[in-house]
Amino acid sequence: MKSICILAIESSCDDTSAAVYKDGKILSNCIASQVIHKEYGGVVPEVASRAHQANIVPVVSRALERAGVAKSDLSAIAFTRGPGLMGSLLVGVSFAKAMALSLDIPMIEVNHIQAHILAHFIDEPKPSFPFLCLTVSGGHTQIVRVNSPLEMEIMGTTIDDAAGEAFDKTGKLLGLDYPAGPIIDKLAKEGQVVFKFTEPNVPDLDFSFSGLKTNILQFLQKRVRKNPDFIQENLADICASVQARIVSILLKKLVQASEQTGIKEIAIAGGVSANSGLRAALAATGTKKSWQVFIPKFEYCTDNAAMIAMTAYYKYLEQDFVGHDITPLARYEF
Questions:
Q1: CB of 143 within 8 A of CB of 204?
Q2: DSSP E strands: which ranges in 234-321?
Q3: How far is CA 310 from CA 77, 134, 246, 293, in A?
Q4: What is the rounded distance in angstroms from the CA atom of residue 198 to the CA atom of residue 215?
Q5: By C-alpha distance, which of 51, 48, 63, 4 is closest to 305?
Q6: Is the pTM of this model over 0.90?
Q7: How confident is the model at residue 37 (pLDDT cuts 50, 70, 90)?
Q8: Within this chain, domains 5-117+301-317 and 125-296 share the same CATH topology
Q9: Residue 154 Cα to chain centre, angstroms
Q10: Listed residue (10, 61, 35, 84) closest to 299, CA to CA
Q11: For 135-169, how does the pLDDT look when each residue is reduced to its tens digit (9 = 90+)?
């Protein structure tokens, strides 16, 4: 059987990544991050797209070199089509088109969220089908029923803001650097859950975090009016309390989804799945509920091309290729 060798490109937000998959293994996974966005307290789309243009050639070259793969060895080129920032996606899509045309090999489009879920199949242990996956990031919060590598059903989603956005917004209110999620996670380990924040009343398996964000804002404003040093004096406890509430909201819905479906194979994916509080709480809930829990390695939680390559492998088996008229999609449902 001919060797399957895929170059994958991820450029949905502010990380430029390239990875090489060959015969069941990820041989390289290179990432260039953009630290400049810390100056603005969030990702600036135009700045991100220009940085992708500067980074993509060296990142792809490094991925091929580390994998020990020549361009002539490639069977296909995969890329993130969406969802994401349009300018950032356009850089990756355009590069993939040009390279695929020059090598006369097929192209494979990949849904970014689907790829986060299939990151679980890069290494052992791997979940069995069907399983439930909680996908949590700065832009998405969903519970997905995964029936096969390419057949997924969204059972619940956020009706407004995502869990990652709640972390980042809280960080901004607390005067923390961007991205705030990892900083809140670190500070939470030093604090205690002493403040109570609202739990939204959302039907079915959907989520909402806009009310929680407002509740945190009003709480801080009220306390700071009484004591201007309140945040500094209680920073760790605030972080621990906010994180505990976000995690409890996520797990409550996940437990509900498991009970509705009877599925006990449970996974998490996306940038927020790197949060230690969420990981610990999921492990504890899994023990209590007799779940088989799957938590990805940290390197596969945040945006990376290895997950794009893994998804592309399954699509390659189905000969699911796209033409060179393909365009990126800022909103892209699977």
A1: no
A2: 265-269, 292-294
A3: 12, 19, 30, 20
A4: 7
A5: 63
A6: yes
A7: low
A8: yes
A9: 16
A10: 10
A11: 998 888 999 999 999 999 999 999 999 999 999 99
Return the CATH fold of 5-117+301-317. Nucleotidyltransferase; domain 5 (3.30.420)
The residue type of 303 is D
Question: What's the rounded Cα separation, in Å, for the pair 144 and 308?
Answer: 18
DSSP codes of every residue in 214-252: HHHHHHHHHHHHH-TTHHHHHHHHHHHHHHHHHHHHHHH
Q: If DSSP codes are grouped into helix, strand and coil, which group holds residue 132?
A: strand
Condensed to tens digits (0 to 9), the pLDDT of residues 214-229 reads 999 999 999 999 999 9
Q: Is the pLDDT of residue 46 over 90?
A: no
- Domain residue limits, the chain: 5-117+301-317, 125-296
Q: How many C-beta atoms lie closer than 10 Å to residue 251's C-beta?
A: 19
Q: What is the pLDDT of residues 286-297, one digit of tens each?
A: 999 999 999 999
- What is the spatial distance between Cα 90 and Cα 112, in angstroms, rounded to a whole number? 14
E strand spans, 137-211: 141-148, 151-157
- Select from 3.30.420.40, 1.20.120.550, 3.10.150.10, 3.40.50.1360 the CATH code of 125-296: 3.30.420.40
Share of the chain above pLDDT 90, in %: 89
> 190: helix, coil or strand?
coil
With a CB cutoff of 8 Å and minimum separation 6, the contacts of 318 are: 150
d(CA 191, CA 189): 6
Q: Where are the beta strands (DSSP E) in 116-234?
A: 131-136, 141-148, 151-157
